[in-house]
Specification:
It is built from 14 helices and no strands. By secondary structure, it is mostly helical. The protein starts with 7 loop residues before the first helix and ends in a 5-residue tail after the last helix.
Length: 376
């Protein structure tokens, strides 16, 4: 796996996983008319991809024969694409009706390439589709993970079953390094969580200040100073984690167990999938931020167009017509609620994606020691 440079252009031009779909998304976006809802949905989709990344890192069991790892890395066949559309996209209020509203607005309806990729992840990882339209507000636990998701059962026919990827990483490093590495990782993750919660507070206070509420400016400035101190502490914790992981890599080079190579390959595939998801989320956020200012100028026109379509379907008493009308109403509600949190979502999400990429880069150093066995 390549060492990562944490900028979107670098990730794309390096040819990292997720680059093809991300470039396709950018092409689709370049041909769009200004539209606030499309940008808010990109932010929502980015958060949801981040959530699947989090579940792959922390909540999904892994073994040398875990089928989900192979599926998550595979291509989407035509039959899979049709299944995903029928099972997920056509049951989503936006994707089920966007062709209607785009046609009314004189736009060419084009399915987001990254939406299809995301729903493929959902189908692979979860017993039932979580509520992907319920955005988290400022609840950081819900931001990082789907609150109602149930991970599919994973069995280990050969070898051990690890509760998550991090447990598998611990198993790959020499025993004498395991405890200190795990402790350093725990300390670092605690620091990251503290920053995430403080970023939430800063975002909440910033919204109050921007809306002209009295008495929040001082709290906002204090919270920003507290955030800076937490970031300083996190940098120290990250430096310690770097040291412990490097010690583990050095020990591993002189004490490697070739029998663990199959597990290392599985871990590598998950890391590549997380990297791909990070590229996709970064792309979605970047497109949305770039297009939102111009789109906001046309918001009234966009809402009028949506209301016209709703009026048409309000008179349709057929079962399909009533369903379409309800979907359109849900889109109107989401447009209002998502707009309030758009920028804070991107700020917090970008931070969390950066930390996911840091883990991918750090863990890949361990995995690469095993992968080099095949090159000898």
């Amino acid at each position: 796996m390549k060492k990562l440079l944490l900028t979107a252009p670098a990730l794309l031009f390096l040819g990292c996983g997720g680059a093809v779909e991300s470039i396709s998304e950018a092409v689709v976006a370049s041909a769009e008319k200004p539209n606030v809802e499309k940008q808010l949905n990109r932010i929502s989709l980015g958060i949801n991809i981040l959530r699947t990344n989090s579940d792959m890192l922390y909540n999904t069991p892994i073994s040398v024969d875990a089928e989900w790892v192979d599926k998550i890395s595979g291509d989407i066949s035509n039959s899979q694409e049709n299944m995903l559309k029928e099972k997920y996209l056509y049951e989503d209020p936006y994707y089920a009706t966007v062709q209607i509203t785009d046609a009314m607005a004189g736009s060419l309806p084009v399915l987001s390439p990254l939406a299809l990729s995301f729903y493929n992840r959902v189908d692979i990882l979860y017993e039932e589709a979580p509520d992907m339209n319920q955005l988290p507000g400022f609840d950081m636990e819900k931001y990082k993970e789907f609150p109602d998701a149930k991970i599919k059962k994973v069995e280990a026919v050969e070898g051990n079953l690890y509760l998550n990827l991090e447990d598998a990483i611990v198993a790959l490093i020499p025993e004498q390094n395991q405890d200190k590495s795990a402790d350093a990782r725990s300390e670092w993750q605690s620091a990251v969580q503290d920053i995430t919660l403080k970023k939430r507070q800063v975002a909440e206070l910033e919204l109050e200040v921007e809306t002209g509420e009295e008495g929040y400016r001082e709290q906002f400035e204090i919270a920003k100073k507290e955030l800076a101190e937490l970031e300083r502490v996190a940098e120290e914790k990250e430096a310690i984690l770097n040291q412990e992981l490097q010690k583990a890599v050095n020990s591993l080079k002189g004490d490697i167990d070739p029998a663990k190579l199959p597990l290392a390959k599985k871990v590598n595939a998950v890391l590549e999938a997380v990297e791909a998801g990070a590229v996709q989320t970064t792309t979605l956020f970047a497109i949305a931020l770039q297009k939102l200012p111009d789109s906001l100028k046309h918001l009234a026109e966009e809402q009028t167009s949506l209301d016209k379509v709703k009026m048409i379907y309000a008179m349709d008493v057929s079962k399909e017509g009533r369903k379409t009308y309800e979907f359109l109403n849900q889109r109107s509600s989401r447009l209002v609620s998502n707009a309030q949190y758009a920028i804070p979502y991107v700020t917090i999400g970008s931070y969390l994606i950066g930390k996911q990429l840091y883990l991918v880069s750090s863990y890949s150093d361990i995995v690469e020691v095993y992968l080099e066995l095949e090159e000898k």
